[in-house]
Amino acid sequence: MTYTSDEIFMNAALEEARRGREQGGIPIGSVLVHNGVIIGRGHNRRVQQGSVIRHAEMDCLENAGRQPASVYQECTLYSTLSPCDMCSGAALLYGIPRVVIGENVTFSGPESLLTERGVEITILQHQECIHLMRQFIVDNAELWNEDIGE
Amino acid sequence: MTYTSDEIFMNAALEEARRGREQGGIPIGSVLVHNGVIIGRGHNRRVQQGSVIRHAEMDCLENAGRQPASVYQECTLYSTLSPCDMCSGAALLYGIPRVVIGENVTFSGPESLLTERGVEITILQHQECIHLMRQFIVDNAELWNEDIGE
Where is the CMP/dCMP-type deaminase domain (chains A, B) (predicted)? Predict the structure, then answer.
């Protein structure tokens, strides 16, 4: 069985999501990839750090550290879930040209805004990403609503 | 001399901006106000914490802690500078209905996106906000470009 590079990096984001879940957190993970190398990884830390800004993609970008614009502009951001307004805005701020989304079935962010601004989007509809979020939302509806501002 | 409440809260955001500058950081400040009370304040921490996500508004939201959606939906976010894509996205995520901007002369974020999504925007064109940023950008062009992804 062969895997595409998108599947390989989405699996790394999924590892992050599972790590978050094991910590009692919201199971969303993300990796930032530059020229085929993961330069940042992270997961949602609302529960673990009481954070309202450390969504998975934000945690990933923070963990990647301060990068030159020229690096961001060659990166792909992977997230197990469709990025929300904040995380989409972060991708736009740093001019990240490509976003790969695990699934947008359980939640869908402003994907059309990303597309309009020239970001290439790939949606994998990865069954394990969907399963992880579906189970989490059923078990933790209130926490989930807090995380998406509802 | 009398002050409007917007001027009073913008002055609090300016205090944060000056605090950031005194720490050697980027002089942008923000406060989050709920029913006339400041419930969060912050400033840009790119330099101080090596952070790529702690713009002033993000730092302010983080310092306000986990709030119910019902609180965010009654808040006003003050920033000494027009919020960038990321910070505007954070305001949208949490359904903050009003954003007061110190100035949008030295930098202008996606204000039309905020307006389209129903956020009320007030731009003060506050002379001290403009002066603080102009001076900073002249003295630190490279750092400033990094902060806005350029």
Answer: 4-121
Among chain B residues, CA nearest to A68 = B146
Q: What is the dihedral of CA B75, B77, B83, B89, to 10 degrees?
A: -20
Q: ipTM of this predicted complex?
A: 0.97
Enumerate the residues of chain A whose CB falls inside 8 A of the CB of residue B52.
Answer: 61-62, 64-67, 94
Q: Which of B 82-141 lie inside 8 A of A, CB atoms?
A: 84-90, 92-95, 110, 113
Task: Give B6 to chain A, closest Cα distance, Å.
Answer: 25
Neighbours of A99 (CB within 10 A): 26
Residue segments in chain A with a per-residue pLDDT below the cut of 70: 1
Spot the catalytic one: A15, A22, A57, A128: A57
If you search the block for the tokens 């029913």, which residue do you land on? B35
Q: What is the pLDDT of residue A18?
A: 98
Is 0.90 topped by the overall pTM?
Answer: yes
